[in-house]
Amino acid sequence: MVEDNPGDFFLVEEFLEEQIAIPQITLAQSFIETQEVIKTAEEPFDVILLDLTLPDSHGEKLIEAVMKLADSTPVIVLTGFTDMSLSAKSLNMGVSDYILKDDLNGQVLYKSILYSKERTQFINKLLLSEKRYRELFHLSPQPMWVYDVESLKFLDVNDAAIEHYKYSFEEFMSMTIRDIRSDDDKKILKKHLEEEVVKSSLSNQGVFRHQKKSGELIHVDVRSTELAFNNKRARLILAIDITERLLYVSAIEDQNKRLKEIAWIQSHMVRAPLARLMSLVQMYDMLIEDGEMSQKDIHAELLKASTELDDVIKDITEKSAQIKLGVV
């Protein structure tokens, strides 16, 4: 308790003893003494009860100085001043509560202490949560952003998004998520957002096309989660560029198609001239003996079938080489 009036200290002490079995109270009667007490304390205090008129400091200046010393410890102002503007200012400066001494009693003081402690714990958890969010968000190697569900405006973007899309942070903050879509994809976005409202799901995933500042279109695996951001209903977006992956898959599919064509050639086109060659060889002696075909005619047929087979083999070899080099 920071109080230079012994009578007020005694009164507060009584109020606390009414509500708390064994309250542990440390008294500081000046700002200099307050500095020393807080700095040398073995454990942080649960709460600081602050009078605004001390011998060496008072008013807003005192509040500002004590708030810096308090760190995360809640500060409750106990004062005889009925200045409402000072009351509002002190709350804006981070004070947990502002109580007039004339209105003070054991129950009011106890409730204020409990409220202040719970409020401070909640704020500390919130700050820790925000710190973790910031670390996850800004250190992510993948583009991430937060946008307003109502206006679709960007509320925050990480460095990876700035690097990948080539917009500056200021440019992002002046844009909506429509601005990273082509005209054709804006219609798709509108339909998706309408479906998202109907589904009312917290998390969604889908593949969409985005447009970089240069105009380059990329395919993106988008994963979104709803969250509250600066008291606004928002969505957190993780955008993974899968353009190269899709191109690779497309190339593999094309190669498979070509390989199927080669397999068809092998099983159909090769078989025909090869079958004729085999038949001609088997019939060679018989045809010569019967005189139905001259040796010259048979040689001509053999040459024709062999040339045809050679052309087919060359075609297969050429297509295989093109697939290997990634030409087709």
Name of the CATH class of the largest domain = Alpha Beta
The geometry reads as: rod-shaped
Beta content? 15-25%
The CATH architecture of the largest domain would be: 3-Layer(aba) Sandwich
Integer count of domains: 3
Tell me how many strands there are: 10
Going across the biggest sheet, name each strand in turn. Answer: 7-6-10-9-8
Which structural class should the secondary elements be placed in?
alpha+beta
Radius of gyration, taken over Cα atoms and rounded to an integer in Å: 41 Å
Write up this protein.
The chain has 328 residues and is of the alpha+beta class. The chain has 3 domains: 6-130, Response regulator (Rossmann fold); 140-241, 2-Layer Sandwich (Beta-Lactamase); 245-325. The protein is 56% helix and 17% strand. The protein contains 11 helices and 10 strands. The protein has helices at residues 6-19, 31-40, 59-70, 84-92, 106-138, 159-165, 169-173, 183-199, 243-269, 271-290, 295-325; strands at residues 48-50, 53-54, 57-58, 75-79, 97-100, 144-148, 154-157, 203-211, 217-229, 232-241. Strands 7-6-10-9-8 form a 5-stranded antiparallel beta sheet, sandwiched between helices. α1 crosses α5, α2 packs parallel to α3 (59-70) and α10 (271-290) runs antiparallel to α11. The radius of gyration is 41 Å and the shape is rod-shaped. The chain starts with 5 loop residues before the first helix and ends with a helix. The model has no long low-confidence stretch (mean pLDDT 82).
